[in-house]
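User: I'm curious whether this sequence folds into something compact or stays loose and floppy. Could you predict its structure so I can see for myself?
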Amino acid sequence: MHLNSWLKVVLDGFQFELKKFDIQLEFKLDDTIKEVVLDKKALIKVIYNLVMNVTKYAPETNTLTIATERVNDEFYRVSFTDQGKGILAGNEEKLFDRFFQRKSNQEGYGIGLAYAKMLINKHNGTIAVTNAKPNGACFYFDLPFNLEESNVTDKHEAVLPEPSGGSKEDDADKQELLGQLTLLIVEDNAELLNYTNRLFNDLFKKVINARNGQEGLDKAISALPDIILSDVMMPVMDGHEFCRNVKSNIEISHIPVVLLTARKDEASLKQGYKMGADAYLTKPFSNDLLIDAIYNILKGRLRLKESYKASINTESSLVKLTTSNADEKFLRDINQIIKAELSNPNLNVDFLVDKMAISRASLYAKFKSVVGVGINTYINDARLAEAKILLEKTDHSMLEIAELVGFQTQSYFSTLFKEQFGTTPLKYRQNCKK
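Assistant: Here's the prediction. I'll summarize afterward.
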């Protein structure tokens, strides 16, 4: 394979991503380097990590320079020189350690550089970094000219580095939330499935596995996980179709989906989000980035639920909790039924199960997951919110108001009202008229 020509083709695929950061590519290629032997898949992963690190850690770069050169008669070098701040003294070798944390901002390099180092080592090569002049960092790898094809085939399938998390404080925050929840991982690659299992087993209460989209869909329906992490390229049903099925199924449409893919083109990205993905990350991934993405999605859902509690039973606040059209319709339908049947004392979970044509378990789990309160609590909140309006604007007796909002006894109505608002219905009316 002609090295220089291949590099240009590969790096041309990064142009769209680099354009977002206003980064141009410059090539300084040694024409004396002709045919070489290497594992294309493995080297693309190495190049991807080196290029993407520029966008993450040296975004001030205007020109990323890719160069090839003969080191000696036995090795050639491929280098990537950015225009960032460079590497802190003493960190040059540590960057390729597993999940090394930079002191400047505690941002983890994740699996990327450690994985790149492993792949280069499998090619009997070396990878390193040095500071460039006058500024920037130069990442490079040296590979042998005389590498035989049999020595590189499938080398990139070697065992991945051991998973590792972030700081203890961050882990504690994540453990507090994630430790109560269930994660479904859908991945057909046994090695990556095992890797992500080890990464998340200590963070989540429970981790469930599926080997393709169809199996993942079945397990999502039966287990009702709190979040799903799925590969895109899979047999039987791919990740895009799987995501579409999740987001269109009323029983599980509330479950956030994070897609992982080796494809970096804009069309694939748009397709993922079109199918309803909550996040879309590329492989090889940074552990910290993946964990943070999952944590932030779930933390964001939690904040929405808390904001809902501060504005109980307004339809606009309820709809803000939804992340799919199916969920929005689901909650709007429930609101309409509750409003129409508010005076009905038989309005409860069983009543809604019959009207919504959904199982009791699915209704309860879905509503609790989306809104953050149980369905019976939500119904009582709606009754009490309407009771407040009637106390403010009508002269109905306490008994009449209790019956109008569906409570069978005045005493139960008064008890719940005081628990909710800190005062009795009678005192609330008296204060409104002052």
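Summary: Strands lie at 24-28, 63-70, 75-81, 126-131, 137-144, 182-186, 206-210, 227-231, 257-261, 279-282. Residues 240 and 272 are 6 Å apart (CA to CA).
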